């Protein structure tokens, strides 16, 4: 197509590939494919003697990815970047060239607010149904709650601390804040898993449509949990790839990760 030789078009393609590579909403394999696509574009431009500006833009994107997503840049792409960084003109900032005032926003895909539109409109727009499998997951998780009376544990901030507090109350305060991580430590058999399960049940009890989704995840049961953890967990719960993508794009999760030190 004629547009493939248009520098503005090629720069736009590079920008979009950079966004995909940097955005964890995509599968790791897809992100790495986007990086490889960038490398191929660089190679093709070099062979065809295209404008240097495009290759500089590609190198800039790869360098930004290397800083923010180190597990994405590997193999041939890493070799390309290392070779370019050894070039004096690149190190001095020639990669920015006449675009030094531009701001590269690699992670520009914004999470939109929860949808309040009708299910019919969602069908017309070909959006996957996520609430039905979520309701099924909720029923399954609540079905296993059992009939035992649960008493929330009291704990303390550190081993040397003397003041004790109710753990459930403290976690509820955490969930209402902007904090991202709450770590519960304790000896084996202290009740950490029981607390995590009780927390999940409480969150599912209070779940509302388009609300935050609680996920109780047994880390030892997930292969390589450091990569695509949500995807792997939801696949086990029979969610489709389209449903997982929709949830990750438009919803929030409360991840209750159990067995961190096992």
From TrEMBL:
Organism whose genome encodes this protein: Entomortierella chlamydospora
InterPro entries: P-loop_NTPase, Sigma_54_int_dom_ATP-bd_1
UniProt protein name: NACHT domain-containing protein
First and last residue of the signal peptide: none
Taxonomic superkingdom: Eukaryota
Gene3D superfamilies associated with the record: P-loop containing nucleotide triphosphate hydrolases
């Amino acid at each position: 197509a004629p547009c493939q030789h248009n520098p503005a078009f090629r720069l736009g393609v590079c920008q979009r590939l950079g966004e995909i590579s940097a955005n964890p909403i995509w599968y790791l394999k897809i992100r790495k494919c986007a990086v490889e696509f960038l490398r191929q574009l660089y190679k093709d431009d070099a062979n065809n003697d295209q404008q240097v500006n495009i290759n500089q833009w590609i190198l800039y994107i790869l360098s930004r990815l290397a800083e923010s997503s180190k597990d994405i840049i590997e193999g041939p792409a890493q070799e390309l970047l290392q070779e370019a960084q050894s070039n004096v003109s690149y190190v001095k900032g020639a990669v920015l060239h006449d675009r030094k005032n531009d701001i590269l926003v690699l992670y520009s895909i914004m999470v939109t607010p929860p949808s309040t539109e009708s299910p019919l409109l969602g069908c017309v727009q070909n959006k996957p149904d996520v609430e039905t499998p979520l309701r099924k997951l909720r029923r399954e998780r609540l079905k296993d709650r059992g009939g035992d009376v649960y008493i929330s544990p009291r704990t303390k901030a550190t081993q040397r601390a003397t003041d004790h507090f109710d753990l459930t109350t403290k976690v509820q305060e955490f969930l209402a804040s902007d904090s991202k991580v709450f770590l519960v430590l304790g000896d084996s058999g202290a009740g950490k898993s029981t607390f995590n399960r009780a927390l999940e049940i409480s969150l599912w009890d209070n779940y509302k449509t388009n609300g935050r989704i609680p996920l109780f995840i047994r880390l030892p049961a997930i292969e390589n949990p450091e990569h695509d953890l949500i995807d792997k967990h939801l696949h086990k719960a029979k969610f489709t790839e389209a449903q997982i993508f929709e949830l990750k794009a438009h919803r929030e999760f409360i991840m209750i990760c159990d067995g961190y030190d096992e």
